UniProtKB/TrEMBL annotation:
This is NAD(P)H quinone oxidoreductase. PANTHER family: OS02G0805600 PROTEIN, QUINONE OXIDOREDUCTASE PIG3-RELATED. Keywords: NADP, Oxidoreductase. Pfam families: ADH_N, ADH_zinc_N. The keyword Transport does not apply. InterPro entries: ADH-like_C, ADH-like_N, ER, GroES-like_sf, NAD(P)-bd_dom_sf, Quinone_OxRdtase_PIG3. One of its GO terms (molecular function) is NADPH binding. It comes from Gemmobacter lanyuensis. Residues 18-328 form the Enoyl reductase (ER) domain.
Length: 331
């Protein structure tokens, strides 16, 4: 029998904009699901760079979202709002969240939750939504990557990178990745990258040009990588930008874009509509969840922290020393 949720819960709040030390354990009211929403009893929550940006005051949550950090979680449905038809209390789910994952309970639209794939546990399941939604929507839908094409992902050892390598390889693409150490490059190649490029020692532009150029590049670095990406693209190649760790402004000569018929695009996931995210979820269930269940795509786990140690988890992700995903253990 599924017990009703309590009135209060443990959570991690951002007490003021700042470093990891501003994350504090608090007790808050358990949210109540509205029409079309489900309440999840969180077992594990994923830790992502947007959480750290929100903590620093650089990435405000949508007006209707929880102010608590946390964009993905896995656990059990604790309660359903009016109109919910897909889920019932007790179901195991993993979900993309509008916010609020660093807590014992979190709310999300029912269509943003997915069943936990066969063969993985809740710890691994908590690492799937943010990266899978991001990679599928940007690389496959926006970038149009096809089998046989050359794909370059920067930050190949990150949560996004490790997911992108496996997903692109499973779809038949030739995969290249950049990373900042021999250990990280080895991890990328073990996941299926044909060539991992240590950006501290090698020039990814010359390496990709020698291969004929990349058909699709997924970049989260920005800054001076943008004009270099343009040079590394094949004719009619597509550059997909999802973050700007080194800045969003750069001088760019668009003549090359025109002459070589290049496409520059990009997106951020959180501000998109509920309908768009529901469409991505349907794509994942059809195309990506079978990869997970076959074992061709698995979350790469870096480390686990207790919910109360969220500040240490943020220090870990901001150190850039991690390979794969970081999670908070909640239940």
């Amino acid at each position: 029998m599924t017990l009703p949720p309590p009135h209060t819960m443990r959570a991690i709040a951002i007490t003021e904009p700042g470093g990891p030390e501003v994350l504090k354990a608090v007790e808050v009211t358990v949210p109540v699901p509205k029409h079309g929403e489900i309440l999840i009893r969180v077992a594990y929550a994923g830790v992502n760079r947007p959480d750290a940006l929100q903590r620093a005051g650089q990435y405000a949550p949508p007006p209707t979202a929880s102010p608590l950090p946390g964009l993905e979680a896995a656990g059990w449905v604790a309660a359903v709002g009016p109109g919910v038809t897909r889920w019932q209390p007790g179901d195991r789910v993993t979900a993309l969240l509008p916010g609020g994952g660093y807590a014992e309970y979190a709310i999300t639209p029912e269509d943003h939750a997915l069943p936990v794939p066969e063969g993985i546990d809740l710890r691994e399941a908590a690492c799937l939504p943010e990266t899978c939604f991001t990679v599928w929507s940007n690389v496959m839908l926006r970038g149009g990557l096809r089998a046989g094409e050359r794909f370059l992902v920067h930050g190949g050892s990150s949560g996004i990178g490790t997911t992108a390598i496996q997903m692109a390889r499973a779809l038949g693409a030739r995969v290249f990745a950049t990373a900042g150490s021999a250990e990280k490059c080895a991890a990328c190649e073990a996941l299926g990258a044909e060539r991992a490029i240590n950006y501290r020692e090698e020039d990814f532009v010359s390496i990709l040009k020698a291969e004929g150029g990349a058909h699709v590049i997924l970049d989260m670095v920005g800054g001076d990588y943008i004009p270099r990406n343009i040079k590394a693209l094949a004719d009619e190649g597509r550059l997909v930008q999802i973050a700007f760790l080194q800045g969003a402004k750069v001088e760019l000569n668009f003549a090359e874009v025109m002459m070589r018929r290049l496409t520059l695009t990009g997106s951020t996931l959180r501000p998109q509509s509920d309908l768009a995210k529901a469409r991505y979820a349907r794509h994942l269930l059809k195309h990506v969840w079978p990869m997970v269940e076959r074992g061709t795509l698995r979350p790469v786990m870096d480390s686990e922290f207790a919910l109360e140690d969220a500040a240490e988890a943020h220090r870990r992700i901001e150190s850039s020393g991690h390979i794969g995903k970081i999670v908070l253990k909640v239940a």
